[in-house]
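Z., the sequence and structure:
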Amino acid sequence: MVSRAVRYLITSLLLVTGCATELPVAPDQPQPDKAIAFGRTMALLTGETSRSYLPRVRFIEIMSRRTLERYSIEIDSDDKMFILQLQPGEYVFTRVQIGEGPFMSMADYDSSFEVGRESLTYLGTWRFGIDSPRYGRMIVLSVVRDQQEEAAAQQALFKQYPELDGQKMTLALPSPNEAQTRLYEVMPYPRYPTYFRRQWW
């Protein structure tokens, strides 16, 4: 069995060497050579917790299927809309990081979606259901299309970019739109003393 220290070392090396391009969560202006994809993320605790902090999505990561380039989108919220400007093509949602105060956890995914060239792409609401803090902690992704949430997302999009109002819109929920995976805590917790680091999973 791989030791805990070796596992954390491998995770840290992947984080350092596998740098992703950071995308703004809501660019100031749309770029004519890129397509617009938008949606919403939510973080929900599905069980009890002794921690003082509720979970939030720190960032999500996607990858272009064609170029294999990775993009990081900083969310840093338990409920937030995101607007992305991407080259048209197929993308894969590969990773999410969850934050709970000084505690940080990572999970890997493999859900794909298509960004069209001539329309706005609505990606739905990405709900991350997070298990209670424990060994073998799990996280469940459920991507849904809710009419009220979709209408609110469209309103926010057109408020920021009035020139997009009236454009054709395409629904592209990531597939599979439901997935459960293991949530691994990431160490060390920066800027926090050792006595805060109580969950060594």
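Residues 5-17, 192-201 have pLDDT under 50 and may be disordered. The radius of gyration is 18 Å.

Let me know what you think.
H.
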